[in-house]
Amino acid sequence: MYIRRDKSNLHFGRQRRNGVSRSLLVIWFIVMAAVVGVIWQFNSVQSWVQASIGAEATPTLDAISLARLGERAYLVGDLEASIEYYHQAVLQAPQDIDIKFEYGRVLIYRSYAGRSYRFRAGEALDVAREAVELDENNPRAQALLCIALLENGRAEEAIGAGLRAVQLAPEYAEGWAYLSLAYYRAGRPNQAFEAANKAVLYNEESLDARRALALSLAFVGEFDAAVQQYERAIQLHPRLDALYFELAQYYKAQNNYEAAIAAYDQVLAMEPDNVKAYTRKCETYFTMREDALAQEACEQAIELDETYPEAHRQLGMVRYTRRNYEGAIESFDRCANLQEEQGIPLPEREIQCYYIRGLAHALLARCDLAWPILQDALQMNPAESIQGAINQGLMMCVGADEADYSIEDVPTPIPPTPVPPEPIGVF
Fold it and tell me: What does the alpha-carbon distance between residue 120 and residue 82 come to, in Å, rounded to a whole number?
């Protein structure tokens, strides 16, 4: 019997398989298109998924990248951001002494912002010690140890670390600069100048070298030359506020108060909420006997940061000079309380917040309050002129029952004579 293969089940079966293959091919194309689409949109899908579970799609930066961000923040004057970047970089590369050096250096500069930032100097010392433990023969580690010890009140030890740094690297500018600062603090002006001179000789573009030379020149009264060195340092780093604060001190030493005000205004142009700049303007106006402008600047500082003791101290001095004794007492009370809350040792506190407050109480016939405050002031190692004022206040209270004193009997504080600031960390 003849069988027609085109009508057979086998032939039918072949036709059916061809149809299924075409369907599978269509499905395969659809699936592959979906896969390609998912891959193409992976980043956005990833962000959506992470957002839905509260995760962030932030890539982890390596230590070098973080350090570069720290340097960038330092150069634009944002020291807090710089500290954070360097901190993260150190965590990722704890063996890298170069990163530790830059981190510690920024911590030191930040510690100059005021007494409430002094803890940064302690952190810098910790970083320096870690660097030295990694390699005691590394000149950058020893240089950082030098400036960190100095900023923690250990000048003689700092000299030892500075000498070690320049022995290891005789042409290392920052090593000579920090050694100069240590000599300065130890009261060795000739050695300070010689070391600073070498620092500039080895690197004319070193900010620290220029600053060290400026301070060593100011130490011997060469204020014009010191100002020139600061101006050069500012050209190297125009957004580092510490340079303007120190420069302004030497303008004031030259009785160039307008230039000092301009320096503080430059800081405020970069950082409008800089409390220290407003406080320094207040002090300068006070010295100029522009009491209304002084009070305005101090009040602006307090509005920005009510916990800044120096602003309350200076506002108290302005009020006392204007014979607003109640207001002065209020300001000095706040100043003293803040310093106590911040753990500042008694000998290091703003002495005006004690002895002038005591005088104000004495003038208001409140000797029960004046006496213990003036006694505290005597424990703060006051200068001879301040001791005289304190004794005068005590004598007012001793003789209070025997004689009547007028407000006019005790002169108001004379504006302070401009003097060269401490070489490091001008507050």
Answer: 13
pLDDT given at position 287 = 95
Nearest alpha-carbon partner for 235 in 224, 252, 247: 247
- In the chain, the amino acid numbered 78 is D
User: Long-range contacts of range 346-350, CB-CB < 8 Å, 24 or more positions apart?
Assistant: 346/376, 346/379, 346/380, 347/379, 347/380, 347/381, 349/380, 350/309, 350/310, 350/313
* CA count, 13 A, side-chain hemisphere, 230: 26
Residue written as token pair 């005088």: 359
Alpha-carbon distances of 329 from 91, 240, 362, 381, 416, rounded to whole Å: 47, 35, 11, 22, 20
* pTM (whole model) above 0.85: no
The Cβ of residue 254 has, within 10 Å, a number of other Cβ atoms equal to: 14
Query: What CA–CA distance (Å, rounded) separates 59 from 229?
Result: 43
Q: How far apart are CA 300 and CA 271, in angstroms?
A: 14
Q: Which residue has the higher pLDDT, 49 or 379?
A: 379
SS3 416: coil
In the DSSP assignment, the letter for residue 297 is H
Task: Look at the block and give the residue holding tokens 């000789």.
Answer: 201
The three state secondary structure string of 239-271 is: CCHHHHHHHHHHHHHCCCHHHHHHHHHHHHHHC
Q: Which residue do the tokens 């405020």 mark?
A: 268
Average of pLDDT values for 96-118? Answer: 94
176: closest CA among 184, 399, 361? Answer: 184
- Using DSSP's 3-state secondary structure scheme, residue 238 falls into coil
Q: pLDDT of 264-316, one tens digit each?
A: 999 999 999 999 999 999 999 999 999 999 999 999 999 999 999 999 999 99
pLDDT digits (tens, 9 = 90+) for 32-68: 555 444 444 434 434 333 333 344 445 678 999 999 9
Q: Which of 318, 300, 274 is nearest to 416 (CA)?
A: 318
Kindly state the tokens that stand for 155: 């000048």
**Look-up of token digits 């998912």:** 38
Euclidean distance between CA atoms 167 and 134, whole angstroms:
18
Crossing angle of helices 97-111 and 139-151, rounded to 10°: 20
Which stretches of 112-138 are DSSP H helices?
119-134
Judge residue 257's burial from the number of C-beta atoms within 10 Å of its C-beta, 0-12 exposed, 13-18 middle, 19 or more buried: middle
